[in-house]
Write a structure and sequence with these properties.
Elements: H1 4-25, E1 33-37, E2 41-43, H2 49-63, E3 69-71, H3 74-80, H4 89-100, E4 104-113, E5 116-125, E6 133-139, H5 145-159, H6 201-207, E7 230-231, E8 244-246, E9 254-260, E10 269-274, E11 277-284, E12 287-296, E13 301-308, E14 317-323, E15 332-338, E16 341-349, E17 351-358, E18 362-369, E19 382-388, E20 391-399, E21 409-412, E22 421-425, E23 431-434, E24 440-443, E25 454-456, E26 467-469, E27 474-477, E28 486-494, E29 506-516, E30 521-526, E31 530-531, E32 533-540, E33 549-557, E34 567-574
Parallel strand pairs: 1-3, 1-4, 2-4
Antiparallel strand pairs: 4-5, 5-6, 7-30, 8-34, 9-10, 10-11, 11-12, 13-14, 14-15, 15-16, 17-18, 18-19, 19-20, 21-22, 22-23, 23-24, 25-26, 27-28, 28-29, 29-30, 29-31, 32-33, 33-34
Helix pairs in contact: 2-5
Length: 578
């Protein structure tokens, strides 16, 4: 007979063993991740319904994983799409995902132009805890579409669900009797298969059909100007932190940056604009050293700076866009270095200012007048400006009113046709390209911008503010020196997804380079994700080493205008030409 102490020990061990089994087995009983796959938008002259349905089938079969990933059935997803009417891109995906109680939503579009097909897709986490997984590819034939979609599915499985994808084994060549391994007979080359556009995606993928002009699939090496950047066709991966430089913290809210030789001493300075001050800095031994305070105010809010010599006296001017005390008027001014100090040469102007680089004129000053009581900061037309007397005056119209606000606008030969066009944010933070007549050439389906700076419009409801937020900066630069302008765009992840009018909290931000490919702005590379909000950015050789840098103002703590508890930093990345 076993003694009581033995029974007690056995009972204790059994309890511990049962608990261990419970905890180790718990993950196996976790609910599978729910994934909604929205029908891809197809922009084509011909009916491509067969391809749209084939992509849905293929993605569903590739992502479904027993007890791990549940793909919501197509009928349920299509029924929920009604809740997203009036919304596009990521906003629509998140609304539909919430309706379906999905964990992830996959959506995208195909644009067919002749033999070229552009694929633009994204996998988003409805909770916002994980960064979206973007995908972009451009094919030179229909036969490459399905392999690219398959690649995207493999990327999602690996990066989101931690699931490896087995590779199909390649059969070894047969060896003839009496032959050694060194004298194996190679199989005769087979004639390339021709793509049947209506072949089922699975058969098309297994057939290995590709066009003669096969482009690299997403995930292959893609040179970028900095090791900290990743090709835009691959999911974001953290890179070596040693490839960038970061300034000390500014206990202020930086609103504008410019790199230029503003005092004609042959060296580049950094113009840093905060909400109350314009300061001049120089890079010395890896640190920013302040050399001057060019302007300051206790009441106005400085929102932007651009630098160029446009009055023809061989000294660059600093064009400061500024708001009055109540943020209901614009009171911009112009600074210039003279006699050892920075002086205001034109002031109290009710114009927003931007400097653009044009095809035939070089740098030009653009202006947009803000009238008191106007219904929107987007309502005024945008003009080229020229100096007359002590102030810039409007000349030729560049863009009709109601299209864009000048703070989020770039102007130049962006489409590489020898003519200047406008790239600007809409009032919903979508990037658009306009002709100078105001016709829309292209519009991004997703909201990518967003800022915290705002203008107070006349109140429409008693006691309620009527704020309108400024768009983010858009820059153009020929980074790889191939004679074609890239368009640099700041992309923000905003907590409320820009759906709440007066509530904006930004979690992450990054800079992306895009290039016009005849159909759209094609993503080239992106910086690493930065924690906070990008308030401005520029390109210039700040450290005087002969290589331009991407210079970013990053706000990590917003603070209050009334107190000095905001936190900003300047971050730079070298832009080495390819």
């Amino acid at each position: 007979m076993k003694n009581p102490s033995y029974r007690l020990i056995s009972k204790t061990l059994l309890t511990i063993f049962s608990l261990l089994l419970l905890f180790t087995a718990a993950p196996a009983f976790a609910a599978p991740a729910r994934v909604a796959i929205l029908p891809f938008d197809v922009n084509a002259e011909k009916d491509m319904t067969f391809l749209q349905e084939g992509i849905l089938d293929m993605l569903g079969s590739r992502l479904a994983w027993q007890d791990k990933v549940e793909v919501i059935n197509e009928a349920e997803t299509k029924a929920a799409l009604a809740s997203g009417e009036g919304f596009e891109g990521e906003s629509r995906a998140l609304l539909v995902g919430g309706k379906l109680q999905a964990d992830y939503v996959l959506f995208g579009s195909l644009t067919v132009f002749g033999e070229s097909v552009s694929i633009d897709a994204k996998m988003v986490d409805v909770s916002g805890q994980q960064a979206p997984v973007p995908f972009f590819a451009q094919t030179r034939g229909m036969g490459e579409v399905i392999p690219q979609i398959n690649q995207f599915a493999s990327t999602i499985n690996a990066t989101v669900f931690g699931r490896g994808v087995a590779q199909r084994p390649v059969a070894a060549p047969a060896v003839q009797a009496g032959a050694t391994a060194a004298t194996t007979v190679q199989p005769a080359p087979q004639a390339p298969q021709v793509a049947d556009p209506r072949m089922h995606p699975e058969k098309l993928l297994q057939s290995g059909v590709q066009s003669d002009g096969q482009v690299p699939v997403a995930g292959q090496a893609n040179p970028t100007p900095n090791p900290a950047f990743v090709a835009a066709t691959t999911p974001y991966v953290a890179q070596d932190a040693g490839t960038h430089w970061k300034s000390r913290s500014f206990k202020e809210l930086i609103t504008g940056l410019a790199v230029a030789d503003v005092n004609n001493d042959g060296r580049m300075e950094l113009v840093v604009v905060t909400n109350r001050m314009v300061s001049i800095y120089r890079m010395e031994n890896g640190r920013l050293q302040k050399t001057a305070t060019a302007a300051e105010s206790r009441q106005s809010t400085f929102i932007s700076v651009d630098v160029a010599d446009l009055n023809g006296n061989d000294t660059p001017e600093m064009y400061i866009s500024s708001l009055g005390p109540a943020r209901t008027v614009v009171d911009s001014f112009v600074l210039e270095y003279a006699g050892g100090t920075y002086q205001t040469i034109s002031g109290a102007n009710n114009w927003f200012y931007r400097v653009a680089n044009t095809v035939d004129q070089g740098p030009v000053l653009l202006g947009q007048r803000q009238r008191l009581g106007a219904e929107s900061i987007f309502s005024g037309p945008i003009h080229e400006m020229s100096w007359q007397g002590d102030r810039p005056v409007p000349g030729r119209q560049v863009l009709p009113g109601g299209k864009a606000n000048l703070m989020g606008l770039a102007y130049g030969d962006i489409t590489h046709t020898g003519s200047d066009v406008v790239t600007a944010y809409s009032d919903w933070d979508r990037v658009r390209i306009f002709s100078t007549g105001g016709d829309t050439i292209w519009e991004d389906g997703d909201r990518t911008g967003g800022d915290k700076l705002f203008f107070n419009l006349p109140k429409t409801d008693a006691g309620q503010p009527n704020r309108e937020y400024f768009p983010l900066r858009i820059r153009t630069a020929d980074i790889d020196r191939d004679g074609k302008l890239e368009v640099l765009i700041a992309r923000h992840e905003e907590l409320a997804r820009s759906m709440l009018k007066d509530f904006r909290v930004f979690k992450k931000a990054r800079i992306g380079s895009t290039l016009w490919n005849g159909l759209s702005l094609l993503p080239e590379w992106e910086s690493q994700n930065l924690s906070g909000r990008i308030s401005d950015f520029t390109v210039g050789d700040l450290d005087q080493d002969g290589v331009d840098e991407l210079v970013i103002a990053l706000v990590s703590k917003e603070g209050s205008i009334m107190f000095t508890d905001s936190v900003s930093n300047v971050i730079t990345f070298d832009l080495n030409p390819k």
